[in-house]
Amino acid sequence: MDVQYIASVCLFALFVASVMIRSAMMRRRGVRAIVFGQTDKSDFLLVPLVFAIAYTALAGTFGLPVWPVLIRPFWSSRFPGWFGLALCAAAVAGIVATLYSFGDSFRVGIDEQKPDKLITSGTFAISRNPIYVCFLMFFTGLFLIHRNIVIAVAVLLFAMAIHRQIVREEKFLTAHYGGEYEEYRGRVRRYL
Questions:
Q1: pLDDT above 90 covers what percent of the chain?
Q2: CATH fold of the domain at 3-187
Q3: Do residues 97 and 154 lie in contact, with contact meaning Cβ atoms separated by under 8 Å?
Q4: Hey, CA dihedral for 166, 42, 54, 153, is it positive or negative?
Q5: Cβ of 188: how many Cβ atoms within 10 Å?
Q6: According to the 3-state scheme, what is the secondary structure of 52-79?
Q7: pLDDT digit string (tens) for 17-27?
Q8: Structure pTM?
Q9: CA gap 78, 82 in Å, rounded
Q10: pLDDT digits over 30-51, tens only?
Q11: Could you give the CA distance from residue 59 to residue 71 in angstroms, rounded to a whole number?
Q12: Measured between alpha carbons, how far is 47 from 83 in angstroms, rounded to an integer?
């Protein structure tokens, strides 16, 4: 088995576990962090993209059934995979830092019922959407490791879906926080 593949699957597990653990911690304090799909059911279009990426990475790593054309690497050099692994590791570290920065404001989706305070410090002082930047870094890293058509297409579609979600969240934040959000928006970039 390829060490880059194994490492990428382990990092993917850490990536998912960090979000799930943080959600569980908040649930114990009475905060429902996962509100994904409540505002717009089309949010669930992200789920098949994440599953496609995850299954393709697992299929390439553990020899699960998949049409070989779908996981055939675009190039043979392993060097970009090491850069991809570094991107994945940085993304996991960024996710953990962002989850910490969020405090009790962390939500997966738009929480119109119980939004918390606007967070502008920590990783949010660098990017208005650090968690999405980390998602895109992670999936780009997976592409560099696995370098196949399924992950390439899924990452592109995921990037478009993330941008759509960010635009929707910005409308909500502007309506909910008004001038405070506009001031923050004026000094911190959307991505990086």
A1: 44
A2: Four Helix Bundle (Hemerythrin (Met), subunit A) (1.20.120)
A3: no
A4: negative
A5: 15
A6: HHHHHHHHHHHCCCCCHHHHCCCCCCCH
A7: 998 888 888 78
A8: 0.86
A9: 7
A10: 777 776 766 666 667 777 878 8
A11: 8
A12: 26
